[in-house]
Amino acid sequence: MRSTKAKLINPEITRRQFLARTILAGTGVALLPGRSNLSSAGEPGSLPTQREIVRHAMAQRPADPWPRGLAHVVLAFPGSQQPEKGYHEPGGSFSPVVGSFGVSIWVRGSAGRLKTTSDALPMSQIQQRFSWPNPKGVPAIVTTTPHYQASWSCAAHGTTTLELQHRGDASERIELAVRSVGPAGGPIEKIAWTGKHLSVNDRWTLTIEPTPAAVFVGHEVDPDWKDQRSQTREWKGEDGWGYARMELVSGRATRLVLRDSAPARLNPLRYPAVRARIEMDLPEQRFTDCLHAQVAHLMMGLLDRRTPPGEPTNYPLAWQRDGVAVVAGLARAGQLEVAKELACYFAENDFFGGFGSEGDAPGQGLRVMEDVAVRVGDAEFDRWLWPHVQRKAGLVLKMASTDKPIRLPYVGPIVPAHRERNDLDLVCEPARDGLIIGRMDFGRPASYITGVSCHGLRGAASLARRLKHPQEAESWLAAADRLQRAWLKAPQWAEERTYMSGLWPTWVAAPEKAVYREHLEKRSDPGQYLPWTYFSAAMTHQWLVLDEPERVWENLQWFWDEQTSPGLYTWWEGTGEENTFHFWEGIRGWVKPPYVTPHYWTAGEILALQIEMLAYVDESGTEPVLVIGGGVPKSWVGKPMRVRALPTSLGLVDWSWKDEVMQVSVRGQPPKLRMGKAFGPAAQVRVTTSH
Predict the structure, then answer these.
(1) To the nearest whole percent, how much of the chain has pLDDT over 90?
(2) CA dist., res. 655 & res. 641, Å (int)
(3) pLDDT tens figures, 464-515
(4) What is the Cα–Cα distance from 276 to 262, expressed in whole angstroms?
(5) 103, 143 Cβ separation under 8 angstroms
(6) How far apart are CA 173 and CA 179, in angstroms?
(7) Under DSSP, is residue 526 helix (H, G, I), strand (E, B) or coil?
(8) Are 577 and 593 in contact (CB under 8 A)?
């Protein structure tokens, strides 16, 4: 949870009700003389921001089309920098990079009257999905409406393509509108049609095939700009309200190519594909689509090898806690090469994130390093990690025994609203009753931080055993046991974070499962944690390891019903611009933010949950147990299923189910194994192992 003022919301509330309550009521702002505003860079200035300019225009021209501004997703190459990210809104409106311009789709009737636009279509008439025309590349976003089908894709760095097909009444005409406003637009001060292509701000070239029937260029502030058919080929103006309307050839599919002349920034991230690398043949397509979508969102949001908590224009930084969820999900989904690259940042940096040096950081770092290392199975990588593991384990031990506050430096930017605080380097207070009294979100959630630290030490011990360091392993395990005993004496049942971490991912509450279940029962509705959807997702994971697949599916269905960008499986955080860095204020788009979306901590939690519904390792006892299909519902059991190349801490797992026979193959040591509850006692299990 980010906000220090957050309150629980009625558990009966839905996302739509929540949105209706929190969205800003006004459509414009008064630009008062002498008002102190933020400039586009987020610093005090005397000029209105681009956001204020757009809000003012919306108030002055309420009958004009305006961006939807209720949901967006990133469409970009993994590892690209924040200014290079493209943004897509439901309906098919798109901005190729932050601060560029918007492309929207307009539909006119037979008489030429504007019927609707991609920004105005009701959400009920919009279907969205990811597709992978190139299995190893960035997915395309496909939008289907009663009037058209649009597919946006990143063909290469600096090149974005729209494939557009008319689907409506034959008398309709389709136009493409290029405007300064859009999902992530910016001022258009120069726009020109050469007869072969459209040029925007002497940077962008837009080529369209077949050549449009007509192209109209002008000034959006003119009274008749939406309908004028001027022969003007070029417009210039300092107010940035240039536009072009391109009337498409009727009955023909259209291909628009946007090319950016600005050179791409260095991108060090290497990746084999932008989807899950496990193979699945499962009865419910939504499950598979959601799983692949989470991988795509997480990867397209990455900033080089850094893991932002949510969409990068709101969160242009790595944040440790959220990033651990991102890497945990990607590692489980088979993106081991990417997870290994990302884990290096966590190894080399002890404290980073928008709130400075927080108490859970050393434990989180240990968790992510072992989470990745045990699945990668690379002895050289283990050896590279070892000094970082030693250092972070030492920090945990120090925090668990300190009799005075510990302050340590952090790296990276701080959320602007908190930059003047004097506790940004405060890691923890003196230990109390065996608990680590760490600072997190400017509170002291001792159970959460102690649990994360306990789990981190056990991960450190696991790596130590692989590298033949038995003395360190035993010492860290003994310290982890002490932390667990302290946790079990007095869990913080009034603290929400206790319910997102007691079993998954820490296992600290395992000796008292019945008590933990009893308390969790009171918080079984995911709506109880709004607007922090990652709390709801992590809480759902507790029900999986408590062997309650029906509850898991109820909650997963809730998430599917409450998507912010339907069909693309995204969720949200907060009630407005949570912890903003003010970058959106310099953009002609996302001008009335109801929340932060997509949120990558939520995506990471959902991804890890879905993977572990197929197979996970139960660490609640003295010996790890491989659980196959623990989240499989009864409705799937009568149908054949297959899963291949699923990474676990016990090895790579394949399994298939047909005719009440479960065949399991594990590339690793022979595990202790059990089947998910839905398969029933009559199921036969056949296990093979290999190295």
Answers:
(1) 88
(2) 8
(3) 999 999 999 999 999 999 999 999 999 999 999 999 999 999 999 999 999 9
(4) 31
(5) no
(6) 19
(7) helix
(8) yes
Residue 203 — φ and ψ, nearest 5°?
-125, -45
Separation of alpha carbons 152 and 141, rounded Å: 5
Q: Which residue type, as a one-letter code, is found at position 334?
A: G
Decide the pairing of beta strands 190-193 and 234-236: antiparallel
Phi, psi of 372 (to 5 degrees): -80, -45
Q: What is the Cα gyration radius of the chain?
A: 26
The residue among 172, 182, 179 whose CA lies nearest residue 114 is 172
Distance CA 368, CA 364 (A): 6
Dist. CA 218–CA 220, nearest whole Å: 6
Q: What contacts 24+ positions apart, CB below 8 Å, involve 546-551? A: 546/503, 546/513, 546/517, 546/520, 547/630, 547/677, 549/613, 549/630, 549/631, 549/632, 549/633, 549/676, 549/677, 549/678, 550/633, 551/524
Query: How many CA atoms lie less than 13 Å away from 318 in the CB half-sphere?
Result: 26
Separation CA 96–CA 117 (nearest Å): 19
Comparing C-alpha atoms, which of 85, 49, 52, 89 is closest to residue 69? 89
Q: How far apart are CA 632 and CA 234, in angstroms?
A: 60
**DSSP string for residues in 209-275:** ESPPSEEEEEETTSTTTTT------EEE-TT-BEEEEEEPPTTS-EEEEEEE-SPPPP-----S-SS
Residue for token pair 């302290």 = 486
Phi, psi of 156 (to 5 degrees): -160, 170
Q: Give CA–CA dist 194/197, Å, rounded.
A: 6
Q: pTM of the entire structure?
A: 0.93
Average pLDDT of adjacent 10-residue blocks, the chain of 691 residues: 35 40 30 32 69 97 96 98 98 98 96 95 98 93 98 95 94 97 98 97 98 97 93 95 97 97 93 96 98 98 98 98 98 98 98 98 98 98 98 98 98 97 98 98 97 98 98 98 97 95 98 96 82 95 97 97 97 96 98 97 98 97 96 97 98 96 94 95 92 80
For residue 28, the model assigns a pLDDT of: 30
- The predicted pLDDT at position 628 comes to 98
- Spatial contact of 392 and 352, defined as CB atoms under 8 Å apart: no
Q: What is the DSSP string of 176-218?
A: EEEES-STTB--B-EEEE-SSEEEETTTEEEEEESPPSEEEEE
Which tokens sit at 408? 């340590």
Rounded to whole angstroms, how far apart are CA atoms 222 and 35? Answer: 27
SS3 24: coil
